[in-house]
Amino acid sequence: MVIGMPAGASIKAPVFQSVVKMIRIQASYVGNRQDSAEALDFFSRGLIHAPFKTVDLKDLPNVYELMHAGKVVGRYVLKIPDPE
Predict the structure, then answer these.
(1) Both 18 and 34 in a single domain?
(2) Which residue of 19, 32, 72, 73 is most buried, as measured by CB atoms within 10 A?
(3) What pLDDT, in 10s, does the model give residues 8-18?
């Protein structure tokens, strides 16, 4: 999260690392250092939650159906079976 971006500012991020780690950069034109400190405080106190569900690998086709229907909120995490 980037808060208080001045006009003409830019952000540089490595594409490969951003894709692999699924990094999403959110920016706001308004805000100041106090707003940034408050946002970090909210996160550190657990007030910001990222919803996720864990599903078996066999359920992946159902997850794709939900995605195409626009019914996915948050993230789905796949449980990959251990190779035996």
Answers:
(1) yes
(2) 72
(3) 888 888 898 88
Residue 1 has pLDDT above 80, yes or no: no
> How many domains does the chain fold into?
2
| Residue found under tokens 């990222």 | 50
Mark residue 35 as left, alpha or beta (left: phi above 0; alpha: psi -120 to 50; beta: remaining): alpha
DSSP annotation string for 63-76: HHHHHHTT---SEE
**Residues 59, 82 contacting (CB under 8 angstroms):** no
On whether both 17 and 40 belong to a single domain, the answer is yes
Amino acid at 49: H
Task: Render pLDDT for 19-69 as a digit per residue (tens, 0 to 9).
Answer: 888 888 888 888 888 988 898 899 899 998 878 899 999 999 999 999 999
The residue range of the domain holding 81 is 50-84
